[in-house]
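Need residues for this backbone.
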Protein backbone atom coordinates (compact mmCIF):
# COMPACT_ATOMS: atom_id res chain seq x y z
CA UNK A 1 0.00 0.00 0.00
CA UNK A 2 1.31 3.45 -0.90
CA UNK A 3 1.30 6.15 1.75
CA UNK A 4 0.09 9.54 0.58
CA UNK A 5 1.94 12.57 1.91
CA UNK A 6 -0.16 14.79 4.21
CA UNK A 7 0.22 17.85 1.93
CA UNK A 8 -0.81 15.86 -1.13
CA UNK A 9 -3.70 14.31 0.82
CA UNK A 10 -5.01 17.78 1.74
CA UNK A 11 -4.71 18.94 -1.87
CA UNK A 12 -6.55 15.83 -3.09
CA UNK A 13 -9.32 16.35 -0.56
CA UNK A 14 -9.64 19.99 -1.60
CA UNK A 15 -9.80 19.09 -5.31
CA UNK A 16 -12.38 16.35 -4.74
CA UNK A 17 -14.59 18.56 -2.55
CA UNK A 18 -14.40 21.30 -5.16
CA UNK A 19 -15.29 18.84 -7.93
CA UNK A 20 -18.31 17.60 -5.98
CA UNK A 21 -19.47 21.17 -5.37
CA UNK A 22 -19.09 22.09 -9.05
CA UNK A 23 -20.64 18.96 -10.54
CA UNK A 24 -24.05 20.52 -11.19
CA UNK A 25 -22.89 24.10 -11.92
CA UNK A 26 -19.71 23.76 -13.98
CA UNK A 27 -18.97 20.26 -15.25
CA UNK A 28 -15.88 21.36 -17.17
CA UNK A 29 -14.28 22.84 -14.04
CA UNK A 30 -15.32 19.75 -12.04
CA UNK A 31 -13.59 17.56 -14.65
CA UNK A 32 -10.46 19.71 -14.40
CA UNK A 33 -10.41 19.26 -10.61
CA UNK A 34 -10.82 15.50 -10.99
CA UNK A 35 -8.08 15.44 -13.62
CA UNK A 36 -5.74 17.38 -11.30
CA UNK A 37 -6.53 14.93 -8.49
CA UNK A 38 -5.76 11.99 -10.78
CA UNK A 39 -2.41 13.51 -11.77
CA UNK A 40 -1.52 14.10 -8.10
CA UNK A 41 -2.35 10.50 -7.24
CA UNK A 42 -0.40 9.18 -10.20
CA UNK A 43 2.63 11.31 -9.30
CA UNK A 44 2.44 10.07 -5.71
CA UNK A 45 2.50 6.48 -6.95
CA UNK A 46 5.24 7.16 -9.50
CA UNK A 47 7.44 9.03 -7.03
CA UNK A 48 8.11 5.80 -5.20
CA UNK A 49 11.32 4.02 -6.17
CA UNK A 50 10.53 2.39 -9.55
CA UNK A 51 11.99 -0.94 -8.37
CA UNK A 52 9.90 -0.84 -5.19
CA UNK A 53 6.88 0.27 -7.19
CA UNK A 54 7.28 -2.67 -9.54
CA UNK A 55 7.96 -5.10 -6.69
CA UNK A 56 4.71 -4.12 -4.95
CA UNK A 57 2.85 -4.03 -8.23
CA UNK A 58 -0.13 -6.34 -8.67
CA UNK A 59 -0.96 -7.24 -12.24
CA UNK A 60 -4.45 -6.52 -13.50
CA UNK A 61 -6.24 -8.54 -16.11
CA UNK A 62 -5.14 -7.16 -19.47
CA UNK A 63 -2.19 -5.35 -17.86
CA UNK A 64 1.50 -6.11 -17.56
CA UNK A 65 2.69 -9.08 -15.54
CA UNK A 66 4.71 -8.45 -12.38
CA UNK A 67 8.03 -9.46 -13.99
CA UNK A 68 7.28 -7.11 -16.90
CA UNK A 69 6.63 -4.19 -14.53
CA UNK A 70 9.84 -5.01 -12.64
CA UNK A 71 11.76 -4.79 -15.88
CA UNK A 72 10.09 -1.84 -17.62
CA UNK A 73 9.91 0.81 -14.86
CA UNK A 74 13.66 0.79 -14.06
CA UNK A 75 14.38 0.65 -17.80
CA UNK A 76 12.30 3.79 -18.33
CA UNK A 77 14.28 5.54 -15.57
CA UNK A 78 17.53 4.79 -17.42
CA UNK A 79 16.09 6.29 -20.62
CA UNK A 80 14.68 9.52 -19.14
CA UNK A 81 17.51 11.62 -20.57
CA UNK A 82 17.40 10.18 -24.06
CA UNK A 83 14.95 9.53 -26.86
CA UNK A 84 12.65 6.60 -26.20
CA UNK A 85 9.79 5.18 -28.25
CA UNK A 86 6.88 2.88 -27.49
CA UNK A 87 8.37 0.36 -29.93
CA UNK A 88 11.65 0.34 -27.99
CA UNK A 89 9.86 -0.08 -24.64
CA UNK A 90 7.67 -2.86 -26.06
CA UNK A 91 10.74 -4.53 -27.51
CA UNK A 92 12.36 -4.85 -24.08
CA UNK A 93 9.42 -7.09 -23.09
CA UNK A 94 9.11 -8.73 -26.52
CA UNK A 95 5.60 -7.37 -26.98
CA UNK A 96 3.99 -5.59 -29.89
CA UNK A 97 3.80 -1.79 -29.44
CA UNK A 98 -0.02 -1.79 -29.52
CA UNK A 99 -0.39 -4.59 -26.96
CA UNK A 100 2.30 -3.04 -24.74
CA UNK A 101 0.59 0.37 -24.85
CA UNK A 102 -2.77 -1.09 -23.84
CA UNK A 103 -1.26 -3.27 -21.09
CA UNK A 104 0.87 -0.41 -19.72
CA UNK A 105 -2.10 1.96 -19.58
CA UNK A 106 -4.24 -0.71 -17.92
CA UNK A 107 -1.51 -1.26 -15.32
CA UNK A 108 -0.43 2.30 -14.57
CA UNK A 109 -3.32 4.47 -15.71
CA UNK A 110 -1.15 6.44 -18.13
CA UNK A 111 0.04 5.72 -21.65
CA UNK A 112 3.75 4.79 -21.81
CA UNK A 113 4.77 8.13 -23.32
CA UNK A 114 2.69 10.13 -20.84
CA UNK A 115 4.38 8.18 -18.05
CA UNK A 116 7.80 8.98 -19.56
CA UNK A 117 6.86 12.67 -19.77
CA UNK A 118 5.73 12.75 -16.14
CA UNK A 119 8.98 11.11 -15.03
CA UNK A 120 10.98 13.62 -17.12
CA UNK A 121 9.11 16.51 -15.51
CA UNK A 122 9.82 15.05 -12.06
CA UNK A 123 13.52 14.77 -12.95
CA UNK A 124 13.46 18.38 -14.17
CA UNK A 125 11.98 19.49 -10.84
CA UNK A 126 14.79 17.79 -8.94
CA UNK A 127 17.39 19.50 -11.16
CA UNK A 128 15.67 22.89 -10.84
CA UNK A 129 15.67 22.59 -7.06
CA UNK A 130 19.24 21.31 -6.75
CA UNK A 131 21.04 23.51 -9.28
CA UNK A 132 20.94 26.87 -10.98
CA UNK A 133 21.37 25.37 -14.45
CA UNK A 134 19.48 27.10 -17.23
CA UNK A 135 16.16 25.58 -18.24
CA UNK A 136 17.51 24.86 -21.72
CA UNK A 137 20.27 22.73 -20.19
CA UNK A 138 17.84 20.96 -17.85
CA UNK A 139 15.53 20.29 -20.80
CA UNK A 140 18.31 18.47 -22.66
CA UNK A 141 19.37 16.51 -19.57
CA UNK A 142 15.79 15.33 -19.03
CA UNK A 143 15.21 14.19 -22.61
CA UNK A 144 13.14 17.11 -23.85
CA UNK A 145 13.82 18.39 -27.36
CA UNK A 146 14.30 21.97 -26.15
CA UNK A 147 13.19 24.47 -23.50
CA UNK A 148 9.84 25.05 -25.22
CA UNK A 149 9.13 21.31 -25.12
CA UNK A 150 10.02 21.24 -21.41
CA UNK A 151 7.79 24.26 -20.73
CA UNK A 152 4.80 22.80 -22.55
CA UNK A 153 5.11 19.40 -20.85
CA UNK A 154 5.82 20.93 -17.44
CA UNK A 155 2.76 23.18 -17.63
CA UNK A 156 0.57 20.24 -18.67
CA UNK A 157 1.76 18.05 -15.75
CA UNK A 158 2.30 20.64 -12.98
CA UNK A 159 -0.08 23.41 -13.99
CA UNK A 160 2.46 26.24 -14.05
CA UNK A 161 5.50 27.05 -16.19
CA UNK A 162 8.90 25.72 -15.05
CA UNK A 163 10.22 29.28 -14.68
CA UNK A 164 7.35 30.24 -12.38
CA UNK A 165 7.61 26.97 -10.44
CA UNK A 166 11.33 27.46 -9.97
CA UNK A 167 10.96 31.10 -8.96
CA UNK A 168 8.73 30.07 -6.09
CA UNK A 169 10.58 26.87 -5.15
CA UNK A 170 12.99 26.64 -2.22
CA UNK A 171 15.89 28.13 -4.27
CA UNK A 172 14.47 31.62 -3.77
CA UNK A 173 15.31 32.86 -0.28
CA UNK A 174 12.10 34.89 0.15
CA UNK A 175 9.50 34.17 -2.54
CA UNK A 176 6.80 36.77 -2.93
CA UNK A 177 3.95 34.31 -2.38
CA UNK A 178 1.33 37.05 -2.01
CA UNK A 179 1.50 37.70 -5.76
CA UNK A 180 1.13 34.01 -6.63
CA UNK A 181 -2.42 32.76 -7.38
CA UNK A 182 -3.86 30.67 -4.52
CA UNK A 183 -4.53 27.50 -6.56
CA UNK A 184 -1.00 27.55 -7.92
CA UNK A 185 0.43 27.93 -4.40
CA UNK A 186 -1.35 24.73 -3.34
CA UNK A 187 -0.13 22.87 -6.43
CA UNK A 188 3.39 24.19 -5.87
CA UNK A 189 3.48 23.12 -2.22
CA UNK A 190 2.29 19.61 -3.06
CA UNK A 191 4.79 19.42 -5.90
CA UNK A 192 7.69 20.68 -3.77
CA UNK A 193 6.96 18.11 -1.06
CA UNK A 194 6.91 15.39 -3.69
CA UNK A 195 10.28 16.47 -5.12
CA UNK A 196 11.86 16.88 -1.70
CA UNK A 197 11.18 13.20 -1.00
CA UNK A 198 12.98 12.26 -4.23
CA UNK A 199 16.09 14.39 -3.73
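Answer:
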Amino acid sequence: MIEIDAGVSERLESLLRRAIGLLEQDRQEARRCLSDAAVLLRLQVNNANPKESAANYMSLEGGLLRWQAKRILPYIETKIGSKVTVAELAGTLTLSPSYFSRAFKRSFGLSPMTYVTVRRVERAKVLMMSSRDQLSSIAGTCGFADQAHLSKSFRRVVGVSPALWRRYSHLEPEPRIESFPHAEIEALRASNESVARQA
